Every structure is written in structure tokens, then in C-alpha cells.
Amino acid sequence: MRKRTLSFWEIWNMSFGFLGIQFGFALQNANTSRIFETLGAKVEDIPILWIAAPVTGLVIQPIIGYFSDRTWTKLGRRRPYFLAGAILSSIALFIMPNSPTLWVAAGTLWMMDASINISMEPFRAFVGDNLPDRQRTLGFAMQSFFIGIGAVVGSLLPYMFTNWFGISNTAPQGVIPESVKWSFYVGGVVFLCAVLWTVIRSKEYSPEELKAFEEASKKEKVERAEVVDKSKNIRNQFITGLGMAIVGLIVSFLIFENGLTKELYILFIGLVIAGVLFMLVSFLRKKQVRNGFTIIITDMLNMPTAMKQLAWVQFFSWFALFSMWIYTTPAVTGHVFGTNDTTSELYNDAADWVTVMFTVYNGVAAAVAFLLPVLARRTSNKVTHLLALTVGGIGLISIYFLRDKTGLLLAMIGVGVAWASILSIPYAMLSGALPSAKMGYYMGVFNFFIVIPQIVAATILGFLVKELFNGEPVYALIVGGFSMILSGLLTLRVKTNKRINIDEQS
Questions:
Q1: Which of 24, 99, 266, 395 has the highest CB neighbour number within 10 Å of its CB?
Q2: Which CATH superfamily is domain 1-219 in?
Q3: What global pTM score does this model have?
Q4: What is the membrane topology listed in the Swiss-Prot or TrEMBL record (predicted)?
Q5: What are the helix and strand counts (H, E) for the chain?
Q6: Superfamily covering domain 304-497
Q7: Residues 462, 252, 54, 173, CA torsion sign
């Protein structure tokens, strides 16, 4: 028994919800630093205010993936999570621009990012559930297309409201401009409506059908995954956890002794906590305890080889993206336009231009989403990803040398090519290596390597900007550019299943 080939419009419907998700994500990325600065945040404090978002994702993603693998309701397997996340995200989008204080805004960012993750992660597994191998790249490309379109319009909304509808983009000190508020209101409505479209217009295979597919075509993968889980050396798991805890404690002590930036504690105390969890699970497994907690932690050690190799690719590419999302606004307003006065017209015009820049890179991503398979056919997944990330890295680095609006848009073209590749090719390279019975869980774990670099960026970039870069955030973009190029080089060492290469599915 095999999964049937879906029509173009069926794939369109099952991916349409990403349009709304990316509306929310784009508004968050393009405007959160602006909101934080308006409410009084110092530029070196912005990364730590962003930290709630990736920390929340780190916890939620594997849990949502694990439970969505085991869910079946009248709405299906993944769709209940789409809908719940959309409702919560829409509420957060209405609250965010009305935050009266900085800490309310930071807390709302926490809620918003958690809610977006509840919707987003099952969408990745949705492709693996519903599409045969030969159509998975098309599914991820379709998601990338909607991500690009949603981000274009979402990023452009403040500029549109100001320049097309005459809504003010300035406000008294400590007040969010009306153009930003209305952008978030529209984003909340679009988010919910787009996800509802996918919930209503899409179907899912029943648990019985999924089981039949596994037995017919992927039984060996499931069995192999289970054998690895049972035979994993419990002692090695304990030693791994102990090592993580010791390293975290030692570095935390050095941070304390040398009076380094307190944000660095987050990363290494987190390492201590992760080590303790590994040791606890090794103890429970020794006692023959098997539950959701032990499975979630243990399966992290049993990741497929391709997933472990792609983890490094994801780490450095998302580190670069997070540096861009945090620091593009202060870098452009300060370094390019020469102002840090959040109440001035020049600052707000420059901040609006950042939303246009983000619109360009997302628009480019949407435009090239279906062109990447063409390049991959002539080269390979690895070479395509390397070229895309190199172009993106050069784009980020070039911002330091630019002094006009047009040049900034040209820099974003390279970033857009990289963004399109980041959203599709790693998932296409990974999908064939995952057991279908754990598709949601491993897609959630794979996103650790999106979240962890964000935590690293949030903890060290503020320190670097303050202590090494003399408070100049544009240098964080240069670091991000080189990180993106390194990510592309690391792609060359990934061993993938040739059967599901992007060039063979398109």
C-alpha cells in the first residue's frame, strides 16, 4: 500500500496555513526590536529580551512533535495543533503592539513564539505524513513559497500603512506607532484565517492507513530505530550528561569569577540542566522505566547520522539569521542613517525601510523557491545549499559598506536566496532519514538546531557588541555573514539518502 500522489491544489491547500504563520513570524522579526527600543531597551540588552522566544521553542518543539505523532481526533493528527497555535498566536499579535512596558512586550513575545511553534512544527511533519517521497520536496517548496509571500506582505505592512494610507509611523516616547499596531491587528486576522483554510480544506491519513504505509514501505526503518533505542548504552548516556553538566558548571564559575555579562549564564546553566536530564533518564532507563519523558530524551541521542551532520549546517545558518533579525534595525538606523533617536522621523523612516528590506529578502525567497530544484538537478543539494548560503553571507557582510537605500535592497537579494534554501533543502535532505512513526518528534528535535543557535546568539551577541564592537551592532551582521558562509561549507560533509535528493523529486 502506497500513499497516493496529491494534486498541485491539494498540496497548495495543505501548505496555505504557512501564509498566516509567516505573517506572524515576519511581524515579530521585523518589529520586535523596534518595539523594544521604543519601550526603552538599550541596544546591548535587545538580545536577552529575545531569549524567551528560542528557549520556549526548545522546550515546546519536541513535546508538540512527540504528542502530535500520537494524536488522533475528529480534526486529525496534526490539524488540532495548527488550530490551537493559530488562535493563541492571533491573541498575542493583538496584545504585542499595545504593551505598556518593556517587560510586558518581552512576555508577549514569549507567548507569541510559543504559539507560532505549536502551529509550525506539525506543518513540517504534515508533509512527511501526506506526501510520498517523490513529492516531499514539492511540499517543502510550496511551504517556502507561502513563507515568502506571507513574509513579504507581513514585513511591508507598517510601510504600507504609513505611505499608502497615511497612518502615522511616529508616536510620543514610549508609545508604539499606529502603523505598527494596525500591522499586528491585520497579521492576527490573516494568521487565523489562513490556518483555518488548511484545517478545513486538507485531509489526513488515519492511524490505520499510516500503519499500513509503514509496514509496506518503511517497516525496516521503524524496526531499526527501535533496535537502536533499546540497545543504546545507558552508561554512555549518563557519561554524556555528566560531561555536559561539568562543562556548564565550570564555565558558569568562570563567568562569575571574571564578572562577564550575566546573559552568558543562560547558555551554560542551560547546559547543566540538559546534562542533569540526561543523567536522570539514564537512571530511569536502568530501572526499566519507559515513558514519554525517557523516550523524548533518549531519542535525541539516536538521531540519524544525516540529522547530526545537518545539525551543524542549521546551527550556523540560523545563528546568522538571528543576528540579522536582532540587529538589522539598529544597524541600519545607526550605521547607515546615523540616528538612534526613536522619536525622530529619520529613525522611524529608517526603521520602516528595514521592513522593506525584509520584504525584499522574503519576496526573493518566494520567487526562487521553485528554482532551487532546477539548480540542484544540474549540481546537487549540497552545492545548491552552499551557493545559496554563500550569496546570503556576502549580502549580510555588505551592509557594513552601504550608505543608500538601493544598496541595502540589493544586499537583501542574497539573503533571500539563502532564506529560500534554508527553508527547503535541509528538510528535503533529512526527510528520507527519518522513521515515519517518529516524523513529528524528529522534526521537532531538528528544530533544536534552529533554537540553540538563537540562544547562543542572544547570549553572546549582546556581549560582543558591548565589549568588542564598541556598541556598533553592524558588526554583529558581519559575524552573521561569515557564519552563514561557514554553514554552506559544512553542507558538503552531509551524507544523505540519494533516493530523496531534491533533484530527483522535482
A1: 24
A2: MFS general substrate transporter like domains (1.20.1250.20)
A3: 0.72
A4: Multi-pass membrane protein
A5: 22, 0
A6: MFS general substrate transporter like domains (1.20.1250.20)
A7: negative
